[in-house]
Design goal:
It comes from Exiguobacterium oxidotolerans. InterPro entries: PilZ_domain, T3SS_YcgR_PilZN. The protein is mainly beta. It folds into two domains: about 90 residues, Pnp Oxidase, Chain A (Roll); about 110 residues, Thrombin, subunit H. It is built from one helix and 15 strands, in the order βββββββββββββββα. The protein starts with 6 loop residues before the first strand and ends in a 7-residue tail after the last helix.
């Protein structure tokens, strides 16, 4: 399941979310470094007996999660603060389904290129994004449902700049909007790191939306 060195994401009872790394795995416990918030990179403190939710990627980028709790806290002179959580059974680990991914409105530059179907490459913008897919706006309809294309889009980085993501996506829905089309793609091939970046970006945006009274879960 999880191994030393794996990157994981944790969310505590106060909805603070951070990224951390597994430092050791035993039959009973999983040890991890103090989590750092994705937007500020600042570590935050977890309390003993505090309930948390853990997310991790395995098997071709599939996202899994489980509930656990902090059972021990140590201040390691070499590694700093670290925490032990209860190791879950296989039955307690659940795959996070695509429909559970956070989808947020997001305007991004997107380029489409042929994969197996021939058409003239074109650039456009996205309307929303999740770790499972993307919705784009198009002036014409050069492909058909179930066609697979190459999608390249620029995702804002945490401290300025952008990440360039290259994925494969299957066209799963077409909606006519007057003289334009909304094309919904489901990602069929995406690197683990890219999916993690998208998921983290969408969760950050959703938490901001939650604080402002809106909800972006689909």
């Amino acid at each position: 399941m999880m191994q030393t060195g794996d990157l994981i994401m944790v969310r505590n009872s106060e909805d603070r979310q951070g990224r951390t790394k597994v430092t050791a795995v035993t039959n009973r416990l999983i040890w991890m470094e103090a989590p750092s918030e994705a937007d500020t990179l600042k570590t935050f403190i977890l309390s003993e007996d505090e309930s948390i939710h853990v997310y991790f990627f395995k098997e071709k980028g599939r996202l899994y999660g489980f509930e656990s709790e902090i059972v021990e806290r140590q201040n390691d002179p070499l590694r700093g603060q670290r925490y032990a959580i209860r190791r879950p059974t296989d039955q307690q680990v659940e795959r996070v389904q695509r429909r559970q991914f956070v989808r947020v409105p997001l305007l991004l530059d997107v380029a489409l290129h042929p994969h197996k179907t021939k058409f003239e490459p074109f650039t456009t913008v996205s309307l929303d994004l999740s770790a499972g897919g993307i919705l784009i706006l198009a002036n014409h309809l050069p492909i058909e449902l179930k066609d697979e294309v190459e999608l390249t889009f620029l995702l804002p980085a945490e401290h300025g700049g952008t990440h360039t993501l290259d994925v494969l996506g299957e066209l799963v829905r077409v909606d006519r909007r007057e003289e334009r089309y909304e094309l919904a793609f489901q990602f069929t091939q995406i690197h683990d790191r890219s999916r993690e970046l998208v998921l983290r970006h969408c969760y950050q945006a959703q938490m901001k939306n939650s604080r402002s009274g809106t909800n972006s879960f689909t």
